[in-house]
Write a structure and sequence with these properties.
By secondary structure, the chain is α+β, with helices and mostly antiparallel strands. It is 53% helix and 15% strand. The protein has two domains: 42 residues, no CATH class; 56 residues. Keywords: Coiled coil.
């Protein structure tokens, strides 16, 4: 069994056991038709569309999870920025109270 690769398309090819030297009868059974496309109803466009449709729920779930994670991270960022600003204000008030300069 060999793997046939032509451009972006590939398929499995069962070969007759012959060699490149011409021995064997040269017949091959392939899942590819004569035009380089998979035989039957499995054109590359059909397969891609089917895979896209089957993966869509997982893609939507991933994006939803990503949005939730991003929202939580944004909320945490806002919290820490507010806490840092508050700490800076408290430090400035203490410096002023005790006469410590920023220099």
């Amino acid at each position: 069994m060999k793997i046939l690769t032509v451009g972006r398309q590939s398929g499995l090819v069962a070969d007759d056991g012959g060699h490149d030297d011409g021995s064997g009868d040269g017949r091959r059974a392939s899942i590819m038709d004569g035009g380089g496309n998979p035989g039957g109803d499995f054109s590359s466009g059909h397969v891609r569309r089917t895979v896209f449709e089957k993966l869509q729920p997982f893609r939507e779930q991933y994006l939803k999870s990503l949005e939730e994670t991003n929202k939580k991270a944004q909320e945490e960022l806002v919290f820490w920025k507010a806490r840092a600003a508050k700490s800076e204000q408290e430090a400035a008030a203490l410096r002023k109270k005790y006469g410590v300069s920023d220099d």
